[in-house]
Amino acid sequence: MDNVATAKIKAFGNSPKADFVSPSEQLITLTIGQLQDLVTQAVEKAIQPLQDRIESLEVTVARQNEKIAALESTQEQDVDRICLDIAYDRQRLAKLESRPSTAPTPIVPPKGEKTIARIAKLRDFLKARGGGATFQECERLLAIHPNQMTKLVSQLDKRSFEVFTRAGDDRQRVLRLKAQIVSREFK
Description:
Layout lengths: L1 H10 L20 H67 L14 H17 L3 E2 H8 L3 H9 L6 E5 L7 E5 L10
Antiparallel strand pairs: 1-3, 2-3
C-alpha cells in the first residue's frame, strides 16, 4: 500500500526540495536604474486617476470662468444701457422744461370783458323777469348766435345759474338763476 500511495504522490509532480524558498522571500538583484523605473511606473499608475480627475475639474473651472465673464459683460452692458437711458431721459426732461408751455386751451377759457358784460346783462335780465328765459330769448337780448350762447353758458357759474329743459317741450332749453340764500348777521 505504501507503494501505491507513493506512486500517487509522485504522480502530482516533484515534491518540494528542502532548500526551497517562497517567491516573497526570494532575493533578487536590481540596479538602481531598474528600481527607479519600477518605482516611477508604480507611482504613475497610482496617480493617473487623480490626474484625470484634476483635468476634468480644470475643464469645469474654465467653463465656469467663461460663463462668469459672459455674465459680467452682460451686466456691464446692462449698466451702460441703463445709464444711457437715464441720461437720455434727463435730456428729454430738460428740453420739456425749457420749452414754452404748449398746454391745450382749458375747457373753460378765461373770461374777457365782453363775456363778463354779457353775463352781467343776463343776470340783470333774469332777475327782472323773476324766472327763466329760453336760450333764443337770451340770444336776441345779447344779439349773439346760438354757438356763442353755448360758449357763454359753459362759462357761467354753476352755483348761480342752471340750465333745464322746458316742461312741455324737451327741445327748448331754459336758463334761470338759482335761488340764493343770503345770510344776515343778528345783533
